[in-house]
Amino acid sequence: MLTARSSKDAAAATSAAGALPRKRTASGTAYHESGSGEPLVLIHGVGMRLEAWAPQIAFLSAGHRVIAVDMPGHGESAKLAAGSRLEEFVAWFGRFLDDMAIEMTNVAGHSMGALVSGGAAATFGERISRVAYLNGVYRRDPEAKAAVLARAAAIPVTGVDKEGPLARWFGDDPDSLVARELTREWLSLVDPEGYAVAYAAFAGGDETYADRWKDVRGPALFLTGSDDPNSTPLMATQMAALAPKGWARIVEGHRHMVNLTAPDIVNSLLAEWLSFGEDER
User: Fold this and answer.
1) Which of 129, 135, 230, 231 is catalytic?
2) For this structure, is 176 an active site residue?
3) Would you put residue 83 in left (φ > 0), alpha (ψ -120 to 50) or beta?
4) Pick from 280, 271, 273: nearest CA to 219
5) Which of 87-101, 137-151, 161-175, 210-224 has the lowest mean pLDDT?
6) Rg (CA), the chain
7) Tens of pLDDT along 183-201?
8) DSSP classification of residue 101
9) How many CA atoms lie within 13 A of 193 on its CB side?
10) Which helix (H) or strand (E) holds 62?
């Protein structure tokens, strides 16, 4: 387990950064790009926007071409059709790489973004050099599956629930307060239709590529918080055991938004992941 020191300063810096400038691809995906070098694409989770990666963008762009994307129906990106499944989100990501003329890349995803990044690693072959799976799910148990499907079914009726995710994603510790309020703000900005489509794909996608980790040949990092009730440490270790070059890292005392509540540790682990295998090139 890895223990984080106080993240107040990093979270405050994220808040102060505000909205990041965006460009748009021909097919309507909004993205922010920073730095130069080997590409790294960052995909956020349901209800978020690319600013959720601000601490990682600031740190990793010193040595990489970092491209953070707004997922379909989030931020300033165009929506996918109602009923789109995880496979459609993976196909969207492939179109984004085509639009950006990126032949090979590293990809890190958080939560729903982790499911997309895992699907890309499973199906795009050597186009994905490395994959980092942050707070991602794997074969939910029946109780958790029923709960997430019920939440997905309720969204078209009740709209975007902000308090439920905040209660699941954050503890009550003072160091999480800034990240919690940022997340509340992002949830309040999300398009309800885009959110509903993505959440339904997220709810039903935990087994879509679950059998494919054996096919992922590049370095695969599985990272979560010790106290994440949904993207559990057990899930991370199970996936790591299946991937030929997989390893799990668990951040002690943190929950779902670990990249915001423990940014220094997450940045260090992502830097380690990005350097894995460099001596083989």
Assistant:
1) 135
2) no
3) left
4) 273
5) 161-175
6) 17
7) 999 999 999 999 999 999 9
8) T
9) 7
10) none
Per-residue pLDDT tens digits for 157-193? 999 999 999 999 998 888 799 999 999 999 999 999 9
What phi-psi label fits residue 22: left (phi over 0), alpha (psi between -120 and 50 degrees) or beta?
beta
135 in active site: yes
Name the catalytic one among 44, 74, 110, 256.
256
On whether the CB atoms of residues 10 and 264 are closer than 8 A, the answer is yes
Please write down the long-range contacts of 155-158, taking CB distance under 8 Å and 24 or more positions apart: 155/192, 155/195, 155/196, 155/199, 155/200, 156/196
Question: DSSP character for 19?
Answer: S
Residues 6+ apart with CB under 8 A from 7: 175, 179, 260, 261, 262, 263, 264
Of 140, 129, 160, residue with least CA distance to 46: 160
